Amino acid sequence: FERRELLYQRSRGEDTICVFKHALTRDVVYASLLESRRRLDHAAVGAALERLYAGRTDEVVELLSHHFGLSDDDDRAVDYAIRAADKAQRRWANAEALAFWQLALARLERMPDTEATRLRRLDAAIRQAEIRFALGHHAEQIDLLERVLPLVESADAPRRAAWHYWLGFLHSLTGSAPEVAIDHCRQASAIAEQEGLEEIGAFADACLVQVYVFAGELDAAIAAGERALAVFEARRNLWWACRALAQLSSAANARGEWERSLGYCQRALAHALELDDLRLKVSALARMASTHVQRGDWRRGLGYCDEALALGPTPYDAAAVKAIRGYALTGCGRLDEGITLLEEALVWYEHSSLKFTRCQFTLWLAEALLARGDRVRGVELVHSVLSIARELRYRHLEASADRLRARMTEN
Predict the structure, then answer these.
(1) What tens digit of pLDDT does each residue of 21-52 get?
(2) In a 10 Å sphere around its CB, with 0-12 CB exposed, 13-18 middle and 19+ buried, how is residue 247 labelled?
(3) What does the alpha-carbon distance between residue 143 and residue 117 come to, in Å, rounded to a whole number?
(4) Where is 8: in which H helix or E strand?
(5) Rg of the Cα trace of the chain?
(6) Is this prediction's pTM over 0.90?
């Protein structure tokens, strides 16, 4: 092969390796191997990497996932795919993390149907929730969770509770009836209380905050959020403390308690800085921006939007920040520019299932159109929001739309 210049030798320290000169030649040779031989060779390469990187396999976990994924070693294929997903998620490479989770789940579904495999399949479905939430794949995650329902009934209490609170949280985002989301969260709370799982109960409460806000039960939202926050901060679970604080900020804004909302945001930002977590920083800054623009402090809101965008937010957060920034610009009198940003953000929301958030930003667009004199289009948007809010029983949103409609009627 060397004589024919198909491959050549390369020194690496004390070792010598052979490298194909052309990728096409490598692919032809690889394809000529029997599939059974390829699987054996991939397993051998994976084992060699484990020996070479003993004690530091995290450096090459993606390679290990690749090679064992093409071998007959089911357990290592799943283990390394999950580790690669976790590694990608830590650096907020969410699309990459999701791809590894999908590899793990696909392999698990082909494995013998043992109790251990069923539990790992359930874990693989539940643990994708945070990633898909960041990517805006909310409806897809609901489908995935509902597909593993047969595995839930025989699972332990923490897994059953997690399945319920994630479904409740995601159902509230995607426009299910409030009682559906509330029921899932309450089932998670009941499981946690029965089993004495304080932190699991706090997870359920944190999800309930958002559900209650959408349903217009603002006192219940604040109470649930404060319960969850006390547990998370006492246990130093700062990630979920930030999640609770973000929802508490929304509840306070819905009650017009701006200073209280900003206090929640500042605590969330402090936790995010302590963790040095990109997404939590973006979330806290976006919530601060939203609070300021809703209270009419447009320029300060713009400043927080710019800080959030400078961090490179995920698609889910980027769309929200774009809408908040657009609304802030309209408040500063830059109507055309702000309306354009709001419209662009709503294009993203049209392709998502986030009905409550989409309706909220649609009302902001309608308000901006009214300010620009485009009353006909503004009224159409308000009526569309009213229709959705009444159908889904978003009581606070319905009241906001009614107030804006009254203003438009007066004008």
Answers:
(1) 556 655 555 566 667 888 888 899 899 999 98
(2) buried
(3) 20
(4) strand 7-12
(5) 25
(6) no
